[in-house]
Design goal:
heterodimer; A: 280 residues; alpha/beta; Elongation Factor Tu (Ef-tu), domain 3; Rossmann fold; six-stranded antiparallel β-sheet; 30% strand; globular; B: 351 residues; 2 domains; seven-stranded mixed β-sheet; four-stranded antiparallel β-sheet; 10 helices; 20% strand
Chain lengths: 280, 351
């Protein structure tokens, strides 16, 4: 009998991309600018992620931190040293080759924020995925009404994107608030967890749409703070972290109840988050 | 050829083979393709493997230890090979050789049909589809033991969907039913001895292991099962070993890992079976484990079998093979879990 050939999409083969720039952001985070082969653009939406691979060290999902409005010819990833693959990534000089699959996930739907007061709530490294959406908003500033950024880190040494943060602080069309859980001797700003920044905000609750990204522990408390401001559930979006190993809805690791985060997420409306009992 | 018997196999043409003829038929099939069939492994265990000697094929067996999925989604599979020095890789694709799976029970093929759904839908996966497109199945009926519960999940012993031929063993030989055209073609090439003019009569085969509700009502039971005490009760006994995942014919979760050879230059990216019952299944880089508690993992496993995938596919993802129960080191019974959930639901309703 003659064998049948079946050709479907090659799901697990990465493109070999080039690291064109590496920038240290903190002691544990670096920003990588990456160029795909043949000047191909990534074509991502804000909030999407890619699977990064280094042969011999494996593959891991990393959020894209640059906006698609700026991804030509490079896109950017911010990577925290947190394991074998990311430790090795931190040793890479520019010019190194890395594997990229993606982009994957739904990302933020820009239309949901259009014409609205956009409230970004970023905790810790959650600012990286959120920055793709923040930059998008600022690059097409006319499409949005108020832009409010609330950012919290554990301590001043962990502040990411200092250059960008400074420009957000200076821009008159951006309202920027920041806090640290623990101050150092040079810190002059707010001290306290991120939820302390939300009650003082003056918000037009019907007009405000929030995008929230942070460590797993943060979501419940931010949701409570936003609900205390009477922001409707459907105006809150959260990007959830899970182990998105394959990125194509097969391997099962990222599943929350009946939802594959790599397919239906990582961005979920809060109405859906409440249905998913394991979500936050 | 005989035809038109008065049972639910009644629409199928059939032949009758004696023992020797059936073994000759296996030898004939080996001239057409690789033949994979159940074999004894030790005294009371069974495994599927390629046939070397047709006499060694076992036709009367309760179930194999590992399910048939291992031939479509291998326990470990090389996705690509790479060299560390230049960060380049070579794609690895499966050899698309024809394979005939011989002596397969209905629940096992139904499990493959459920894997088809998972690997064809959304992002179709070429490795799986290539292996699948090159497979033919010859079924056989079986006598249920204390663990089989196929009928309770809607899979009768003689369910022939997906088979090319289906074998019904009798005292003095085997009826061979022709299910599809591929099966007819296989038989036409075989110089079968003159068939005796026997008339097939259905034998009654009883399931001893039963879910209390009709399978149509199980999604409804799982609508109310999320906060049941059953999960915690079961996790008191569960060891969290993941045997139920690995031996489940419809579980397909996997992990991917890079292996480097001793020359510190060549390596392979390997996919291997993983299981949602294992503690670190959901662990992320920050060391958060999203289903940290054993009872949450037990619940997740059962919901994947009876609700999460079913909501999309319309089919239960449990096929009633009984492996998760018969091979569980803690003797946890999936049927008992479901019957307890049914009891909970019916008690709530009667209040």
């Amino acid at each position: 009998m003659e064998p049948n050939e079946t050709k479907a999409k090659d799901l697990y083969y990465p493109l070999i991309a080039t690291v064109v720039n590496v920038e240290s952001l903190t002691e544990t985070e670096k920003r990588f600018s990456i160029q795909l082969p043949n000047d191909k653009t990534l074509g991502h939406k804000p909030g999407q992620f890619v699977e990064v691979s280094l042969f011999g060290f494996g593959e891991a999902p990393i959020s894209v931190c640059s906006s698609p409005t700026r991804d030509n010819p490079y896109f950017e990833l911010t990577v925290r040293k947190a394991g074998r693959l990311t430790d090795k990534m931190h040793l890479l000089p520019s010019g190194s080759k890395i594997g990229i699959r993606g982009p994957f996930g739904n990302g933020f739907n820009v239309q949901d924020f259009e014409g609205k007061d956009v409230l970004f709530v970023a905790g810790g490294i959650g600012l990286a995925p959120l920055k793709s959406m923040i930059d998008f908003t600022l690059d097409q500033r006319d499409r949005f009404n108020r832009v409010i950024i609330v950012y919290g880190t554990k301590n001043p040494a962990e502040i990411l994107f200092k250059r960008e943060v400074e420009s957000w602080q200076q821009r008159r069309d951006v309202e920027f608030y920041m806090t640290v859980d623990r101050a150092d001797k040079n810190w002059k700003g707010n001290v306290g967890v991120i939820t302390t920044l939300i009650p003082p905000l003056e918000l037009d609750v019907e007009r405000t749409v929030a995008a929230v990204v942070g460590p797993p522990i943060m979501y419940k408390f931010v949701a409570m703070a936003l609900k205390a401001k009477r922001i409707p559930d459907q105006n809150i979006y959260m990007s959830l972290e899970r182990r998105m190993k394959c990125g194509v809805g097969k391997c099962g690791h990222c599943q929350i109840n009946n939802s594959y985060v790599c397919q239906d997420g990582p961005v979920y409306n809060y109405v859906r988050v409440k249905e998913l009992e394991e979500a936050i | 050829m005989q035809s038109k018997t008065n049972t639910h196999l009644q629409d199928l043409d059939y032949l009758f083979f004696d023992e020797a003829t059936l073994r000759q038929f296996i030898v004939y099939l080996q001239t057409r393709a690789e033949v994979i069939a159940p074999h004894a492994k030790g005294e009371r265990s069974y495994m599927y493997k390629p046939v070397k000697d047709a006499k060694e094929v076992v036709l009367n067996y309760p179930r194999t230890i590992q399910p048939l999925k291992k031939f479509f989604l291998p326990p470990t599979e090389t996705l690509l090979t790479f060299k560390l020095s230049d960060n380049q890789y070579v794609e690895q694709t499966p050899e698309p050789g024809k394979r005939i799976f011989f002596g397969i029970h209905s629940y096992e093929l139904q499990a493959i049909l459920r894997l088809d759904y998972s690997f064809e839908k959304g992002n179709p996966e070429s490795n799986y589809l290539t292996r699948r497109a090159n497979a033919l199945f010859i079924g056989i009926s079986y006598k249920p033991d204390a663990y089989h519960f196929g009928k309770s999940v809607g899979i009768e012993i003689e369910k022939t969907d997906g088979f090319s031929l289906f074998i019904e063993p009798m005292e003095n030989g085997y009826f061979i039913f022709i299910v599809d055209e591929a099966g007819r073609t296989l038989l036409e090439g075989f110089q079968a001895p003159q068939t005796q003019a026997l008339v097939f009569e259905q034998q009654e085969k009883e399931f001893h292991n039963k879910i209390k509700y009709h399978h149509n009502r199980l999604p409804e039971v799982f609508e109310h099962a999320y906060h049941s005490d059953v999960w915690k009760d079961v996790s008191q006994r569960c060891l969290g070993c993941g045997t139920c995942n690995l031996l489940c014919p419809t579980c397909y979760c996997f992990d991917v890992r890079d292996e480097i050879e001793l020359d510190a230059e060549n390596g392979t990216r390997q996919r291997f079976w993983d299981g949602c019952m294992l503690h670190d299944f959901t662990r992320v880089a920050g060391d958060e484990v999203f289903r940290d508690k054993l009872h949450n993992r037990t619940r997740h496993r059962l919901f994947r079998k009876f609700k999460y995938i079913t909501d999309h596919s319309g089919e239960l993802s449990c096929v009633g093979c009984g492996r998760c129960t018969s091979f569980c080191p803690a003797k946890i019974s999936i049927v008992e879990i479901i019957n307890q959930l049914i009891k909970d639901v019916s008690e709530v309703k009667s209040i």
